[in-house]
Amino acid sequence: MDREIIAQKLESLRRCLQRIETKCPNDPSILISDIDLQDIISLNLSRAVQLCVDIGAHLISCMDLPPPNTMGQTFDQLEQSGLISADLATNLKKAIGFRNIAVHNYDAINWQIVYSIITNHLLDFTEFAKVASNLEKL
Question: Which listed residue (14, 19, 47, 99) is catalytic?
Fold first, then answer.
C-alpha cells in the first residue's frame, strides 16, 4: 500500500469536507437560491465522493481482489472484505449517484437533496476516512 498516496487523498478529502462544512447554509432555501454556493458545495461534494472511490480502489488493489468494474462495486468489495459496514457502503453508493448527476447532468440537481446530504451524511465520508486512515497505518 502506498501510504503517501492514501495520506494525500485523505488530506484532500478532509479539505473538501471542511469547505462544505464552512459553506453549509443554515437553511436550504439559501442553497437553492445561491448559484455560487451551489458550485462550491457540488464541486467539493463531487470531489469527496471521487476521493473515497479512489482511496477504496487503492485499498482493493492492495488486497488480492479483482478491480471493481464500477464505482459502486468499490464499496461493495470493501464491505464484503469486512472493511466497511453495509450501511456505509450503501450510503457511499448513494453519494456516487449524486456525483454522477453533478458531473453529467448538473441542471437536474435537486438542491433539497444536496442540502440533506451535506447536513446529514458528511459523517459517512468522515467514517470512511477513519477506516482508510487506520488501514494506512498498518
Answer: 99
Interior angle at CA 95, CA 22 and CA 82, nearest 5? 110
Nearest CA to 6 out of 131, 106, 93 is that of 131
What is the span of the domain harbouring residue 29? 3-136
15 is catalytic: no
Q: Give the tens place of pLDDT for each residue, 50-88.
A: 999 999 999 999 888 889 999 999 999 999 999 999 999
Report how many domains make up the chain.
1
Does 19 qualify as catalytic in the annotation?
Answer: no
| DSSP type of residue 107 | G
Please pick, among 14, 19, 58, 104, the residue that the annotation labels catalytic.
Answer: 104
